[in-house]
Write a structure and sequence with these properties.
By secondary structure, the chain is α+β, with helices and mostly antiparallel strands. Helices cover 27% and strands 34% of the residues.
Length: 665
C-alpha cells in the first residue's frame, strides 16, 4: 500500500480524499494556489505545496506544477479528484513516465472514454444506443450552425473534455448556437485546457440516470447501482439520490450490465460512471462516461456501504476488489443536496465573500438515519471568484425515500450559513415540491417549475400559524429579558402583556400567550398550539416543538420583529401589541429605487466584453455585455428597447454586485 499520496485538487473533494487516506494510515499532500493559501484542505493535509497564482489555468491544471510538487514531497501516487486534471490523459501519462501511480483508470481508458466524442463512437461500434449528434470536432460557429440545422433544434453544445456543466449550452435557434459555441469554447479552455466542442440532439423531457462502476486490474468489474441526477440547473446537477425512484429491477440490471461491459471493453479500472438519458418508457441511451470519481458519489456509498475512494486507492495499488456483484445490495435511500454560493433571489448568480457564519448540521449515523456533510470551507473562510461555487454536499440517508426526504428537510432547516448568497432556500423548496416528492421529475424540472426564477416560497396557512405561535413565544422571552435590564428608573417597571398581533406573509394573526415553566400555550386564530423550546434571545437558530412536531427556524431581530427563514421562505414577521398593529396600518410603504434605466452587475465578476457603445439603440433581448464569474460566462441582455447613454465598464474590469455597467436614456 502507498505511504504517501498527493491530491491534485482543492475544496471539498480534496478534504474527502484526505479523510479516507488518513483512516487508511496514508500520509497526504495538498496543493494550493494563492487564493487557497488558507483553505481547509491545506490545513487538513500532512504537507502542502504552493503551485501558483489563483486562476486554475495557472495552477491546478498546469501539469508541470503538479509534477514539481510530487518531486518535492516524494508522493507515490496521485488522486485527481474531479474536474481540473482528473480526465486529462497527458497528466496520467506524465505520472506514468515518472513512475507515480495514478489513482484512476489507465491512460488508454481515459482517452477512449474520457473524450466524449471518441466514447460515443466506441459506444456506437459496440451497439450501444446513443443520442443523435455530430461526433466530429467543430471548427467554428458557422459550421456549428450548419450542423445544428442538420440535427434539428434544440441542440446541446458540449465541451469534449467537459464536466460539471462547464462548457455546455442548449440552443433553440441559430443566434443561440453562435453565442453558445463561443462561450462553450471559452469556458472549456479556462476550466479544462481543452476547447474542443461537439453537438448533439437535446432530448426534451429526459431523466438523467447514471451507473457507478468499479473495476480492478485483475479482470473484476461491478456496478454499484444507479443515481438519479435529474434535478439540474444549466446542466449542473443540484440534487441527486440513490437509487432512482423511476427504475425497476429489470431496467437497473440491464443498465448495469451494459455499463460493466462497456468499461471492460476499454480495459477500464478504478471508479467510473456511465451516464444515460432515460425516457418515460424506460428506454435508455448512452450519454457519456466520466472516467473519474463523481461529485455525487456519497449517495452511492451510503446505500452500499462501500468507500469508493478507498477502493480507488486499493485498485491503484494492485489489489483485487473484495466483493462481487451479488454482494452489492441496495440498503435504504440517500439524497444529496449541493449547497452552492449562488443567490436564488438574483437568478442563481454567483456570490463571493466571507462566510461570517457556517454551522452545518451534526454528522451522525444510526440504523434509522444518517447525516453527512462533505465540505471544503469553514466559518470565517472566503468563497473565491476563481473556482466552482460549491460550498458543501449535504447528504441524508434513511430506510425509505420519504424518510430520507424528511431528514433532508430537517438538515436544511438546521444549516446555518451567513455572509454570502446561497441556494439553501431553493434546496428546501425542492424538498417540499410535490413533483419531487412523487419522484416524477425530469431534467426540465427547474425550468418548468421555476420558469421565472426563484423568489421564495409562499407557505400554507397551517405552517404560518405554527410560525406565528412560535415567534409569539420567542418574542415573549425577548420582552421578559428586556424588562430585566439593570439600572432602571424607580417606579418604571415594565410588564409583558399576553395579547399580540403577528403579521407575516400578508396575513395578520391575533395571538394570546399563556406561559408556564415548560413552554407556552399560544392561541392563534382560535387554535391553541403548545410551544416548547430552549431558545434564548440572540441565538440565530431556534429549535422548537409546536404541538409535538419539530419546527426549526432561522431567526434574527429586525425593527419590530424578526426575519424568519424556513423551508424556502424568507419572511419578515412583525410582532406588535394590538395598538401598535393598528397604527402600523397607517404607515406609508417605502417606494423602491427606480433602476430601470441602469444595467447593474448582477454578481461579482470580470467583464469579458462589452457589445454596445454610447448612442447605440438596443432592442429587447439584445446582448449588452458578458460577465465571467466562477468559471462561467453570463450574457447580460436588454430587458427593453432603449438608447445607451453611458458605458461605465470595459473588458477586463472587475466589478462588484450592483455596480453600474451602463446607463440608458
Amino acid at each position: 500500500m502507498f505511504k504517501k499520496i498527493l491530491i491534485a485538487n482543492r475544496g471539498e473533494i480534496a478534504c474527502r480524499v484526505i479523510k479516507t487516506a488518513r483512516r487508511m494510515g496514508i500520509a497526504t499532500v495538498a496543493v494550493y494556489s494563492d487564493a487557497d493559501r488558507n483553505a481547509l484542505h491545506v490545513k487538513m493535509a500532512d504537507e502542502a505545496v504552493h503551485i501558483g497564482p489563483s486562476p486554475a489555468n495557472q495552477s491546478y491544471i498546469v501539469i508541470d506544477r503538479i509534477m514539481d510538487a510530487i518531486r518535492q514531497t516524494g508522493a507515490e501516487a496521485v488522486h485527481p479528484g474531479y474536474g481540473f486534471l482528473s480526465e486529462n490523459p497527458k497528466f496520467a501519462q506524465a505520472l506514468q513516465a515518472a513512475g507515480v501511480a495514478f489513482i484512476g483508470p489507465p491512460v488508454k481508458a481515459i482517452e477512449a472514454m474520457g473524450d466524449k466524442i471518441t466514447s460515443k463512437k466506441l459506444a456506437q461500434e459496440a451497439g450501444v444506443s446513443t443520442v443523435p449528434g455530430h461526433m466530429g470536432l467543430i471548427a467554428d460557429a458557422d459550421e456549428a450552425i450548419r450542423i445544428a440545422g442538420q440535427i434539428g433544434y434544440p441542440v446541446m453544445i458540449k465541451a469534449s473534455a467537459g464536466g460539471g456543466g462547464k462548457g455546455m449550452r442548449i440552443a433553440w435557434k441559430e443566434d443561440e448556437v453562435r453565442e453558445g459555441f463561443q462561450s462553450s469554447k471559452n469556458e472549456a479552455a479556462n476550466s479544462f485546457g481543452d476547447d474542443r466542442i461537439f453537438i448533439e440532439k437535446f432530448v426534451t423531457q429526459p431523466r438523467h440516470i447514471e451507473i457507478q462502476v468499479l473495476a480492478d486490474s485483475h479482470g473484476n468489474a461491478v456496478y454499484l447501482h444507479e443515481r438519479e441526477c435529474s434535478i439540474q440547473r444549466r446542466n449542473q446537477k443540484v440534487i441527486e439520490e440513490a437509487p432512482s425512484p423511476f427504475l425497476d429491477e429489470e431496467t437497473r440490471a440491464a443498465m448495469g450490465a451494459q455499463s460493466v461491459a462497456l468499461a471492460q471493453a476499454v480495459g477500464y479500472t478504478s471508479a467510473g460512471t456511465v451516464e444515460f438519458i432515460v425516457d418515460g418508457d424506460r428506454n435508455f441511451y448512452f450519454l457519456e462516461m466520466n472516467t473519474r470519481l463523481q461529485v455525487e458519489h456519497p449517495v452511492t456509498e451510503m446505500i452500499t456501504g462501500i468507500d469508493l475512494v478507498e477502493q480507488m486507492i486499493r485498485v491503484a495499488a494492485g489489489e483485487k476488489l473484495p466483493f462481487g456483484q451479488s454482494d452489492l445490495t441496495i440498503n435504504g435511500w440517500a439524497i444529496e443536496s449541493r449547497l452552492y454560493a449562488e443567490d436564488p433571489y438574483r437568478g442563481f448568480l454567483p456570490s463571493i465573500g466571507r462566510l461570517t457564519r457556517y454551522r452545518p448540521p451534526v454528522e451522525e449515523a444510526t440504523d434509522q438515519r444518517a447525516v453527512r456533510n462533505d465540505t471544503g470551507v469553514f466559518e470565517g473562510g472566503e468563497i473565491s471568484m476563481f473556482y466552482d461555487p460549491m460550498i458543501a454536499k449535504l447528504c441524508t440517508w434513511a430506510p425509505t425515500r420519504a424518510e430520507a426526504i424528511e431528514e433532508m428537510r430537517l438538515a436544511l432547516d438546521g444549516f446555518e450559513l451567513e455572509g454570502i448568497g446561497h441556494n439553501l432556500p431553493f434546496l428546501a423548496a425542492v424538498m417540499d415540491h410535490p413533483k419531487f416528492t412523487s419522484g416524477e421529475m425530469t431534467t426540465a424540472f427547474i425550468a418548468e417549475e421555476f420558469p421565472n426564477g426563484f423568489d421564495g416560497v409562499a407557505l400554507v396557512d397551517v405552517t404560518l400559524k405554527r410560525i406565528a405561535a412560535a415567534v409569539t413565544a420567542m418574542h415573549r422571552i425577548s420582552e421578559i429579558r428586556r424588562t430585566r435590564i439593570s439600572g432602571r428608573m424607580d417606579n418604571h417597571e415594565r410588564h409583558v402583556g399576553s395579547d399580540w398581533n403577528v403579521a407575516v406573509q400578508g396575513q395578520s394573526f391575533d395571538t394570546l400567550v399563556k406561559a408556564d415553566r415548560n413552554g407556552a400555550d399560544v392561541t392563534v386564530a382560535g387554535q391553541t398550539l403548545r410551544v416548547e423550546s430552549t431558545w434564548q434571545p440572540g441565538q440565530p437558530l431556534a429549535r422548537l416543538t409546536v404541538d409535538g412536531s419539530p419546527l426549526v427556524l432561522k431567526a434574527a431581530r429586525i425593527p419590530g420583529g424578526y426575519r424568519v427563514r424556513h423551508r424556502g421562505a424568507d419572511l419578515k414577521v412583525h410582532v406588535r401589541t394590538p395598538r401598535q398593529a393598528a397604527l402600523a396600518l397607517l404607515m406609508p410603504e417605502k417606494v423602491a429605487t427606480d433602476t430601470s434605466r441602469l444595467l447593474l452587475c448582477p454578481m461579482p465578476g470580470l467583464i469579458v466584453k462589452v457589445d454596445v457603445a454610447v448612442g447605440d439603440e438596443v432592442q429587447e433581448g439584445q446582448t449588452l455585455c458578458t460577465v465571467e464569474a466562477m468559471k462561467m460566462e453570463n450574457i447580460l441582455r436588454a430587458e427593453r428597447r432603449g438608447v445607451v447613454s453611458k458605458v461605465n465598464a470595459a473588458a477586463g474590469d472587475s466589478l462588484a454586485v450592483d455596480d453600474v455597467i451602463m446607463e440608458f436614456e
